[in-house]
């Protein structure tokens, strides 16, 4: 029996702190199937990472440390925050200082840039793909002093050189996995107060090929579906054990395949549980009235809609499998069913122009409810392994020095990011439900806590983010919104927009990268 210290390194809390369910799954299978001794260190709310890591290592004396790393950066916005620098300074460096044994990293970000992250952190081991079975075998081999070479899903670095990068491991029978046990490893009180949902997957993998997306690398290119009855059973158990009825479907896209999503919802409805359901990934490609009726009956009180754009040329350049008409149809159906929506719009795609930016913003303004939240980000972040990164590298092998680990964003040929930034910013001043993705618009913790308390007191099923729209409306009534808009316009008149820099390296995209072959 090995002693394993598992560390959640994610301290990014937008839009709310994320319960580390992936790491909980690792802990559950290591203890249940491997009979190992687990110490779970959650640093999400840590006030002193160095002290907490030091205390855990010295008191527990682990044989292996596993660190889960969720994000490379904050993915969106005009200025990207490179989160790995925080992970290195706050977590990895202290682990290396206190512990001389094997440290292994995993998580979604490692599925994108595992090799590069080992170099960046100066570590030896990383897990790609489904980490549960890989960690079981990794710990077994460490215990028995067996060679690690050839272990599927493991990247090995020795003497500052990658010596093996084995293909990711994919669990084919996801129904065979044990149910996660969050309360065994984690204090959920702070997550509960901030409105964090418990997370559920109905499948892993994605068969789509959106040009900027990396889910194919993280989870595979084929759907591995979980039995709908098992999904409903897991929700029932988690709600009963945690007391949290806010449940998020954490699939990359919830409603594809559509038939599977509907069957999951039917099974959830049969449980007759009072739920507040939410999904981060609803695609306009597969929405009909039956789906939305089932979602409402199951307990959905909000959805996140990944529209990205409302211009056909831009959607085509992003390799989306839906069109502007699908976006409009989906918006109309959601309004008809009175389901609150958070829209996610990404401006700055390869085919973007001033006309397409205005078409998207004006279309969403018309079709979205005034109480729907519209999150607008500027710039498409290029990640390693995405179709966009592969295409760019063909034309410019010197476009990145670290294989897209640090932020690289597209600069469309026909409009600059600074111009897009200005247009989008003006919309965020004009319309209270438009939020421009920037650091100053990250939801403060006190709003989440206060909002969730108010919703409980009044037994409201409204999403907490509607308070943000309400606050902006109050700002306008008090004249604060107008002052901010005037200050912004003064800045625009005093400074050349070319002087507005983005964090990270930007690439000018030529027509050849997005023209039809």
Summarize the structure.
This protein is of the alpha/beta class and 517 residues long. The chain contains 19 helices and 18 strands. It is globular and about 65 Å long.
How would you characterize this protein structure?
With 517 residues, this protein is of the alpha/beta class. It is built from 19 helices and 18 strands. It has helices at residues 21-32, 49-60, 83-98, 108-121, 131-144, 182-185, 189-193, 215-219, 228-242, 258-271, 289-298, 312-317, 324-336, 354-367, 387-395, 417-430, 445-457, 466-478, 480-494; strands at residues 3-8, 37-42, 64-68, 103-106, 125-127, 154-158, 161-165, 198-200, 203-204, 224-225, 246-249, 276-279, 303-308, 341-347, 373-378, 408-411, 434-436, 505-508. The strands form 5 sheets. Strands 2-1-3-4-5-6-7 form a 7-stranded mixed sheet, with helices on both faces. It has a 4-stranded parallel sheet with strand order 13-14-15-17, with helices on one face. Helix 10 links the parallel strand 11 (246-249) and strand 12 (276-279). The protein is globular and about 65 Å long. Residues 497-501 and 510-517 have low confidence and may be disordered.
